Amino acid sequence: MSQSPYISLLTTVMGIIPIGIGINAILRPAHALSLFEFERPVAPRDQSLVDSLMIVYGARDIFMGLAISAAGFFGTRKSLGWTLIASSGVAIADGAVCWSHGLGAWNHWGFVPVLAIIGGLLVRQSDSKDGL
């Protein structure tokens, strides 16, 4: 699928974003927490727990970015499409957590239509063209 320059560019951009967010969460957990609009806990023990959870979050985002990149560069349009659609579920979940605390849901939900529409178009296109 990497023969298409547009798909390669799309894959690069859509894969780099979560990888960058994940690296940020691992290296700068307090800053990554601000993307959820949550305040950093005051107690050192709580800070340590939140920092550890941000590393888990970072690893998840890095994996998601690598999965998008792999599907785009080595897979089919259909596999990339379904990977993007699945990634929209992550944005829904992240937004729901923020919404349950009354903060920042749309920082995450704004990605849902982008991921789902592009993913759906790739799946639809692959169904009509049988892959590439």
UniProtKB/TrEMBL annotation:
It comes from Aspergillus udagawae. It holds the Pfam family DUF4267. This is Uncharacterized protein. Keywords: Membrane, Transmembrane, Transmembrane helix. It comes from the Eukaryota. The chain crosses the membrane at residues 6-27, 48-74, 80-99, 106-123.
